[in-house]
Amino acid sequence: MTASPVESWLSAVIGLDVGTIGSRSLEDSVKRRMAVCSLLEERDYLDHVKASPDELSVLIEMIVVPETWFFRDREPFVFLAQFVATTWLAAHPGGVLKVLSLPCSSGEEPYSIAMSLQSAGLPSSRYRIDAVDINPALLRKAEKGDYGGNSFRSGVPTHSERYFKHHGAIRTVSAEVRSGIRFIQGNIMSLPGSIAGQAYDIIFCRNLLIYQHGAARSKIMATVEGLLDAEGLLFVGHAEMMSLLADRYEPIRHSGAFAYSRRKTGPSKVVPEAQAVCALVAPGPAPVLSLESRIDRVRALADQGRLDDAAAICQDVLKENPQLAEAHFLLGLIRTAAGHVQEAEECLSRTLYLDADNYEALVHLSLLKAQRGDEAAAERLRQRAGRIHDKAQVPA
């Protein structure tokens, strides 16, 4: 099937793998926007998209729902604060920490980074966060700094409450936090000059690669590698532990952080947490661990790329707790990372049987369905996820 003009252009310019969202979904979105713009021919609409960044942002939002909130996944920010307080500050007593958030969406991630840095003892004069996104509408929202209840679905750490002013159901980010952040419009496939050539100590590039085709993923990783300082840290999404990272990066041993450093030659130092993880698979009697601790170990092993070990513990947990949706979901992510698509689908389907409103399971399962060409099933799952997302947008 020949790709449409808009599909071909999006693939070339932003690296979008239309299979992850479904060609039918893109086609429907384009038709709706053509009607709004009073255009009859798709090539005329494509010319309009090329000339209007705002129209491009509307189209992208329709086909890839921007999904972010403050302190999403929590542990990346916990580890970031620990790293800065215990390692970076000692090595750079007078330095300025340079951070890149790409894509930054509507700003929740770079603001969470800034709050974490300040909690670690780093004032805004000692860090610079470049927050980049292709969507000018989202950047305008980020610069304004006003957020409703949906942006706080994971809560806010106690140390960060002071960085907000409350106006009814709306929280506004304080000027203290904003001062160290630059919001910049840019496309990761062709970064602006203010970003290109920089060397960042920290890069957050989370939940982007799952939407890109293979060539785009390779280009993005090459770009990120060129921007990351030799001693820098790279944070990715939990579904992005892939072979692109395996050759040149090694995982940081902090459960749930999904952070990587450049691979060093020679044996790596085993930190106490990693020793505890290794004890789970070492010979001899296993320690008695709580369910929560075992789930944490699964995440830690998966972070390190030890997928077989993580899967084994997850399966043991499920033998004892067959109704635990979280364990089925984690096993689904592990199977996805290992390339076992059918098993991953089965695990994610069980997750949804037990927890029908699990947004992330719906998104991941829809991506798997789309990747193997079942667009009808993928679209149904996307619609379910969209309804849950829209429901969550209602201010608390």
Determine Rg (CA atoms, Å): 21 Å
Strand order of the largest sheet: 6-2-1-7-8-10-9
Number of extended strands: 10
Measured distance between first and last alpha carbons: 45 Å
Structural class: alpha/beta
Tell me about the largest β-sheet: 7 strands, mixed
The secondary-structure element order is HHHHHEHEHEEEHEEHEHEEHHHHHHH
The name CATH uses for the topology of the largest domain is Rossmann fold
Global outline: globular
Overall number of domains: 3
Number of helices: 17
Brief synopsis:
It contains 17 helices and ten strands.
Task: Give the key terms.
17 helices; 396 residues; Rossmann fold; alpha/beta; Serine Threonine Protein Phosphatase 5, Tetratricopeptide repeat; 7-stranded mixed β-sheet; single chain
Give a structural overview:
It is globular and about 60 Å long. Residues 266-287 have low confidence and may be disordered. Helix content is 50%, strand content 12%. Helix 3 (42-51) packs across helix 4, helix 13 runs antiparallel to helix 14 (325-337) and helix 14 (325-337) packs antiparallel against helix 15 (341-354). The chain has 396 residues and is of the alpha/beta class. The protein has 17 helices and ten strands.
What topology emerges from the helices and strands here?
Layout: H1 5-13, H2 23-36, H3 42-51, H4 53-63, H5 75-91, E1 97-101, H6 108-119, E2 127-133, H7 136-144, E3 146-147, E4 164-167, E5 170-173, H8 175-178, E6 181-185, E7 200-204, H9 214-227, E8 228-235, H10 243-246, E9 249-251, E10 259-262, H11 272-279, H12 291-303, H13 307-320, H14 325-337, H15 341-354, H16 359-371, H17 375-392
Parallel strand pairs: 1-2, 1-7, 2-6, 7-8
Antiparallel strand pairs: 3-5, 4-5, 8-10, 9-10
Helix pairs in contact: 3-4, 5-6, 12-13, 13-14, 14-15, 15-16, 16-17
